[in-house]
Amino acid sequence: MSNEKKLVEAITSMDVDFAQWYTDIIKKADLADYSSVRGCMIIRPYGYAIWEFMQKDLDARFKETGHENVYMPMFIPESLLQKEKDHVEGFAPEVAWVTHGGKEELAERLCVRPTSETLFCDHYANIIHSYRDLPKLYNQWCSVVRWEKTTRPFLRTLEFLWQEGHTAHATAEEAQEETIRMLNVYADFCEQTLAIPVVKGKKTDKEKFAGAKATYTIESLMHDGKALQSGTSHNFGDGFARTFGIQYTDSANKLQYVHQTSWGVTTRLIGAIIMVHGDDNGLVLPPKIAPVQLVVIPVQQHKEGVLPKAEEIKARLQKNVRVKIDDSDRMPGWKFSEHEMRGVPLRLEIGPKDIEKNQCVLVRRDTREKFFVSLDEMEAKVEQLLMDIQRDLLEKARALRDKKTYTALSLDEFSRIIEETPGFIKAMWCGEQACEDALKEKTGATARCIPFEQENLADTCVCCGRPAKHLVYWGKAY
Amino acid sequence: MSNEKKLVEAITSMDVDFAQWYTDIIKKADLADYSSVRGCMIIRPYGYAIWEFMQKDLDARFKETGHENVYMPMFIPESLLQKEKDHVEGFAPEVAWVTHGGKEELAERLCVRPTSETLFCDHYANIIHSYRDLPKLYNQWCSVVRWEKTTRPFLRTLEFLWQEGHTAHATAEEAQEETIRMLNVYADFCEQTLAIPVVKGKKTDKEKFAGAKATYTIESLMHDGKALQSGTSHNFGDGFARTFGIQYTDSANKLQYVHQTSWGVTTRLIGAIIMVHGDDNGLVLPPKIAPVQLVVIPVQQHKEGVLPKAEEIKARLQKNVRVKIDDSDRMPGWKFSEHEMRGVPLRLEIGPKDIEKNQCVLVRRDTREKFFVSLDEMEAKVEQLLMDIQRDLLEKARALRDKKTYTALSLDEFSRIIEETPGFIKAMWCGEQACEDALKEKTGATARCIPFEQENLADTCVCCGRPAKHLVYWGKAY
Question: Fewest Cβ atoms closer than 10 Å to its Cβ: which of A48, A151, A273, B157?
Fold first, then answer.
């Protein structure tokens, strides 16, 4: 179909140039645009609507697990940021500094928050006094700024949107439970809502968050075999509490330090959706977060009865489905391509011949399968197909991820895989940072995580040959 | 009741010191806290939950009227801010400047957005080409920064949360319609959701937004007789469009400039809720935005059957009502005061004697009226009372506002009212800024608005005696 070809030609094939394919989708599907500010993007209505569905889903999960939303200032005084030594070392090189308010130079510089641990700690020190005040289970939806050199829409931008959970607990055990609970919330959200399979595990010391005792992560794999850190959950132990003096009197009237966690996911997950589900025709959206779940395309719409029928179908479906009619003056073929580009999960075609036969045509975005469905069974079929798509996207992504997950028993094998068939590499590690550094130096791969599901592939480290401590997932990452 | 007194004594009476009363409520009801950053507040869970209910209600109204949410960068390059002359003059003195990113000094300073007209215009110039691209009906939820000298929680802070709508239209008429449509959305939201009556009108040229052709406003009156600008809607005409080159080809293939609007409300509305509905026992919340609409207080909760009954009541009510049980180890009197302080609209008391009689006690926060209600009729009564409270709060606020709205026919009378019985003053105005300046100089009052509902109180200006052009609402304002 020539109209369809035309639009398809407009985006680069992912095999030809994956980075360009990614950028093309963002532009053509109206997800985001560049702005006059270097490295900052404009999230357009279609992209922002996806974020809103993600927020709604996550926010409900946070509230179900007892969390409350708050809002902290976007500025952090330099002295406050510097309180925790590891933390400031990790973040100071990449913050934006406010030095003037109006015409006056400030006595103390303020950084635009890159993350808000220091502000939460400062607040917790003021409001936590007794064991009755614990736990504090706070979350914040906001934007943060990190002065990155190289940026790419959604994946790495100077400013991005995220949520950051910050909690304080009476005991180390409770903090650890919370850290894992929220990692599981993220993993479940990615799999059940975004249809993105993840590997859960712990970061190596080299890769952990600045100031954390331990960082846990969910890692996903993109079409091009690169990994994406998709969410992290940190256990701070009582490190920040000691620095900021966050103490409470326990039930025996003894002063104790609190134990803290933090956890976050960002708009980079929109990048993950593109790179896990997208194809050469554009975006493919999981129904649960698709702003439009079904688009009705009237065929020969000028013919009597077609548009009213399309309206009737919309009215019937919209009780349970996010549905839209495209009755613009474009040709149907153009419309098919356009809504494929935007990743709309289901297309419903209705024309004079269909009306005659009391049927409509349903087409799945993901498989392009076509179904001729009696209008009497339309609602049930649409609902069924949306569930099928949601499930199949996860299964397909899991199959691809598994296919692109390799094992390496030697450094040679490791290098060859990275070079020839990029993906996750499972390999044993001695636990020494020297080997992590050497592997990165030689192959560009980093330790993505020490997965919770350990296997014993070999007894020795893939790099140095000394006794192995852990199985690690390695990969090149965004 | 002594426990109750104790808490009541903890806040200043509004007649003794209104400003202190206001601050006391914010602190005691856990709405907000001060932060380490001058002039920036921490919005605590209870305050933020109110904002979330306000957001949800407003966002639904925006979407019903065809608007879409987007997200623009938080930074504006200095050159972009300077493009529109009036606009930069209005805002440059009160912006925060980012001068360094990491360790590098920036080639061009970036201001933290005080408002986003310039960013939206820059984007619109890129994405609007044809009449088919119009209208653009965008909204953004975000935080903005204005470098204020004097700050007060919710009313005036360096950083505050808001929404800003920005729209572009083909014609001047459509832009004017939109400006008034959104003003009406705000007015309806304030009255129906927040139970705050407003006066709708137009700002004088002196008071209008920097760069606008016309600014419309909703003005409300606080308990202390001061006015609060509660929302504004601006018509920009094609001024910004000419500066930023936002043009489209019309259906006759001719180049035209778009006509634009913007409109916003902020977290200062939480300040309005406090100062319109609050009393000497604390906050009073309209049920529609109350995080907890009904609190169950078990009386003699250690007695057998009391707590299970409270749980049963909660389970029955929570289908339609946001309900919470306070089963802490405090005395009932302490709990009564505590939840009155937090403005919970309804209190439900249940004790052994009530259970025996198959009844409960319901107490209204606003009037303190007490109702003995059969448990069989509980749901219906609770629902009815919540509706009554919502309606009565608006009526009570309207009556007080009307009582505190005066007319002045002479400058003497004007000054005496401002001095002795602060409130809205209706007075005639010649339309000259000199008189506006003189009135402000002499009395501290500003023109709140030229109301849509005009009256002819006199033929001459209250200040200069020349022919009057408009009736104006005057007042001292926050």
Answer: A151
